[in-house]
Specification:
Elements: H1 6-13, H2 17-25, H3 39-49, H4 52-58, H5 73-99, H6 105-146, H7 154-173
Amino acid sequence: MNGMSEREYSNHSGMSRGAVQNAKRSGRLVFYADGSINAVASDARRMETTDPDQQRRSLGGDAGMPTRGSGGTDSYLKARTALTVYQAQERQLAIQKKKGALVDRARAEALVFRLARQERDTWVTWPSRVAALMAAEVAAEVKKQSGQPVVIDAAIMQRVLETHVRAQLEALADLRVSLG
């Protein structure tokens, strides 16, 4: 017998006997002509074909795995770490959203826009609602102060109010809400 038996290779590689049999079935082991396992070639083939994460777990964590110069294991570990961090952040955001600590940005922007539009519409219609009342109040105040009756046209008062309200709304239109 040139090589090792399954049991001997199991002891050599630190794998369970079942794992050795699985590796045999999946073609990750190299055999001599007599059917014994070529340990050196099998170790090399297993390193090439086995998921590095599985290798690390079978060897008891990160301690048994080389991290540099092992044919891409370092980049795999970095990618795996990045994925794990991303998934953790995603779960954290989902939790915060469920708790109500986070809101959908598009929805918040739409609500702010709608509120600003409603306020603008209210101010645009305000002069037509209050012009006649204001004209009457100013006329009454002038009569009270001077003793002379004065007539203030409600249409003129409305035009003056509309001019000033529109100027104020144009100044407010330059304000931008930044949510982010």
